[in-house]
Structures are given as structure tokens and as C-alpha cells.
Amino acid sequence: MARGLAVSFDGAALRALRMSRDSRRSESATPLSAQELARRIGATKAQILAYENGLRVPEPPRILALAHALNVHPLKLASPNDYREWDIADLRRACGLTQRDAARRLAVRESTYRRFEIHATLPNSAAIPTFLDKVAVAFDVPLENVVAAVRRGRAVPEHLEQVERSVRHLFSKYGAQPGFWSQPSTDEPDLLALASRYGWSPRSTSWILGSEFKELRRLLLRAEVERVRADYEIDADRQTQARTQHQRSRRTFEESLQRLPIRLENMYMHGRRS
Question: Distance from first CA to last CA of the chain, Å, rounded?
Fold first, then answer.
């Protein structure tokens, strides 16, 4: 059984939709029978009843066929309680699509789509600046649902850890050091790794990081100023205030540094730079 489908498909929803007014030709018509629904999708009555009673779970193409027969979006046949747990593969299946179906709708190779689904890697072509928008259209769901599902992918935490290591190393070298400010060098291994991950040119990656590092440097400088005040302030009350402000400023800096990998992922997901 496909991962996620067992908890995502809602047999009770299928029965309710079959019996609802929307599946009838007129208000006076009788509810759609399991036999008739089976005929419409090329299944058997026993299969329909098994779906409704939770004894079997339909494959994505059958989910799509059921949705078309009932004139609803496939997600109407899914349990709404599961939405917040889905990754992009779960969302695709709930929309009644196989990987091949999704690749065909997106006009990409099936292997390209598979990499996107498994590794959260967008197509490298600069001609696809809004790939997630295209996924949203292909799945007929809001873009925010697609983005959220991609972020739940099993590969994303590992990506973020790698990005955070690279970002911290580069900032310690180009942002945290005293003296004149300089952009991260385009031949830095960590920068090249980020450029490869996001499909950006080294120059664009340097510009993006430089812009982010300037703000982080400003926050770090503010924290250091408060630390010096705390060390040299004569008045005890002012010294206490400076220490409190230093801790607050340092915390703000650390939080901003920790959010940078997420910001880079957002840039990657919502618009590519070449």
C-alpha cells in the first residue's frame, strides 16, 4: 500500500459524496448507487463498498476517477485531519496523480520530477523560475499547500543542516571579523556548495549572502557594543541594563542567523536567481 494513502483516503467522505445531492441529476433523483458509481469508473460494486468501509484504499488513478465521477476535487476524498502531515508525495497521491502523471502535467522528465519529490530539488533550468507555481496548477491546489508539503520532505532537514554549516562558516570569515567589510569570495567552497544546491551563479550567491551578512553584522555589532558597556560601565544599574540589552541583542543576532537557511530556502522555492 502506498505510503500515506491509508490515512489520507476517507471512505466515509466517498459514501457521503455518493449520497449527496451534487452526485444526482436533480433534487428528486435517488442517490448515486455504489453500482452506478462503479460503472462510471470501471470498477465493481464490491470495490466501491470496500473503499467506503475502509477495507481497501484506491490507488491515485482510481482516486482521480472517483473524483471526476462525483464532480469534486480529489482532496474531497481525503481526510482533512491529515493535511498538516503530508509531504509533497502524499499531496500528489491525494490529488489522484502518479509520479508519471505529475511529470507529464509539468512537462518535465519523470526522473526530474522524482528528484524534486525525493530530494526537494527544483529543475536546474533557469527557464523554470516558478516551478512550484506550476506544481500548484498541476495539482489544482493553493501554492502555500505545495510549499508546506515540500518543506515536510525527509530530505529538507538534511539540506538545512548543510546550508546552516556553510552559512555559519562563511559568516565567521566574512561577517564576524573586525575591519573592513568584504563580500564572500566566489571561490569559497562553502559558497560554491550553496550555489550548486540552489542553482544560482557564484556571483549571485555572493551578492545574496553579502546582503544578508550586512544585516547580521549590524546586529552583532550592536550586541558587542552592549557587551563593552556592560564590562566598563561604572554605575551598577546601568551595567545591569547593558548586560540585559547585550543578552537580548545577542539572542536577536542568533535567531536571525538561524533563520538565514530558511530565508535562502524561501528564495530558492519562490524564485530562482541565475
Answer: 41
